[in-house]
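Task: sequence design from structure.
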């Protein structure tokens, strides 16, 4: 990966963003765009485009957030895809916008941009129709997260760059800005010498975890100053997730702590009762490694690949109906539940009223609200999204990314994302996550298999250990 010192500023030239696929053929979505630079630079960029193997299947509301033409219908039953001209490794979604991270630390965006949440001036671009490079970023970005109408970018140096709505102080005290409570365009947050390791966003607030495993927050319920979360001073925090007005924090021991409107999430309360103090959430039988939150629902992934849920099961966004149907359980909203049929899960994501899970085999499961075709008919059975492309295109991918689902070949999914009314799955050889237990033999075998596939391009390799 290039270091932040060698990335440099991007010029204001217009880059071709992606190739859209509809009914199996690839073609440019608009007229051919050319560099106005010399031929050498043009060839270098063209070579980079040709080498990219990322495919993005995008579904849901026919809005710019999907990154495909708004006139095209795309659902989990028949998902349409685009091929970005960049090597995409991660994707995250806000309520109406999408942010993509490349292997070399660049950022692309699409969707509504009325508050500069896409990282472009809102007076010039009220919406971005297809994934477009944020050329004014001059630092290497290693992580991206979205809130309701805002985006938080984490730099290689542990700094935070915010863009979008800051009406609740969710982007913190903004450096070099006249106002701390207005729309922000790519401004750094005053961290007071803290070095951040990970970022997590709620609807109107942001949680930061520093290199010392301490949690900090800013925004609705916390104020606009980046301050340590009270009650967690002596707890080592490694991850977090947040919804509309509640937050969960995950410790290095796999314990979960919460604050805000958590009584409605885990204690079965029917009325609002906000908890300003941190509360340890009881009932988890396994160490938790990650979580995801929607408007008022949450999913947690355990170290063994199991799933827990809590909150409101509106539109079956927690997929509890299957538990009720198959096991005859009586399950109330606002009660923590361990799901008995979800296995080998490595990632969970929540939208407004729908959810997605990704398992270690590369299958993306979607369930919940389907009014905008972001899911499938609110049915009881989680639906596996068919990430299918032409045989010719599939042959360009590493063999380790080709999976079998019900006797049919499709691409393995490497990352999932949920927006307000949209769903995205990324099939990319550049994420480089290797899942293994602590068994050294298994780890070496999986790593050897990964490295033996010479089509892989190694950047930051993550070995994720499960119990």
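Answer:
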């Amino acid at each position: 990966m290039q270091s932040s010192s060698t990335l440099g500023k991007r010029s204001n030239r217009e880059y071709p963003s992606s190739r859209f696929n509809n009914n199996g053929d690839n073609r440019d979505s608009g007229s051919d765009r050319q560099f106005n630079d010399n031929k050498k630079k043009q060839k270098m960029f063209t070579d980079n485009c040709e080498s990219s193997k990322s495919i993005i299947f995008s579904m849901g509301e026919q809005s710019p957030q999907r990154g495909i033409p708004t006139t095209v219908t795309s659902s989990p039953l028949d998902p349409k895809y685009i091929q970005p001209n960049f090597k995409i490794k991660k994707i995250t979604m806000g309520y109406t916008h999408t942010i993509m991270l490349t292997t070399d630390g660049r950022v692309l965006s699409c969707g509504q941009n009325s508050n500069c949440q896409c990282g472009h001036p809102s007076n010039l671009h009220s919406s971005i129709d297809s994934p477009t490079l944020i050329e004014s970023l001059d630092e290497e970005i290693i992580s991206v997260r979205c809130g309701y109408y805002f985006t938080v970018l984490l730099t290689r140096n542990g700094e935070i760059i915010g863009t979008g709505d800051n009406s609740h102080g969710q982007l913190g005290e903004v450096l070099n800005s006249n106002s701390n409570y207005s729309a922000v365009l790519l401004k750094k947050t005053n961290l007071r010498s803290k070095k951040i390791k990970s970022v997590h966003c709620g609807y109107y607030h942001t949680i930061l975890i520093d290199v010392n495993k301490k949690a900090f927050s800013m925004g609705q319920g916390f104020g606009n100053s980046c301050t340590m979360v009270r009650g967690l001073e002596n707890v080592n925090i490694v991850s977090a997730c947040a919804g509309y007005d509640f937050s969960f924090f995950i410790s290095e021991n796999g314990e979960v702590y919460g604050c805000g409107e958590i009584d409605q999430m885990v204690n079965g309360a029917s009325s609002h009762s906000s908890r300003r103090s941190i509360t340890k959430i009881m009932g988890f039988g396994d160490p938790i490694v990650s979580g995801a939150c929607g408007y008022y629902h949450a999913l947690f992934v355990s170290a063994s690949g199991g799933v827990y849920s809590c909150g409101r099961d509106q539109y079956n966004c927690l997929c509890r109906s299957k538990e009720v149907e198959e096991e005859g359980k009586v399950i109330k909203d606002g009660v923590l539940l361990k799901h008995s049929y979800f296995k080998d899960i490595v990632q969970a994501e929540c939208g407004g009223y729908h959810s997605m899970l990704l398992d270690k085999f590369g299958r993306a499961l979607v369930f919940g609200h389907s009014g905008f075709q972001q899911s499938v008919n609110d049915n009881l059975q989680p639906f596996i999204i068919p990430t299918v492309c032409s045989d010719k295109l599939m042959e360009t991918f590493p063999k380790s990314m080709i999976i079998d689902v019900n006797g049919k070949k499709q691409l393995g999914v490497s990352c999932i994302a949920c927006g307000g009314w949209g769903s995205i799955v990324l099939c990319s050889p550049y994420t480089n996550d290797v899942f293994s237990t602590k068994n050294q033999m298994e780890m070496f075998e999986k790593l050897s298999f990964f490295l033996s596939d010479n089509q892989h391009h190694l950047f930051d390799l993550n070995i994720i250990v499960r119990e």
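Residues 1-16, 23-50, 453-460 have pLDDT under 50 and may be disordered.
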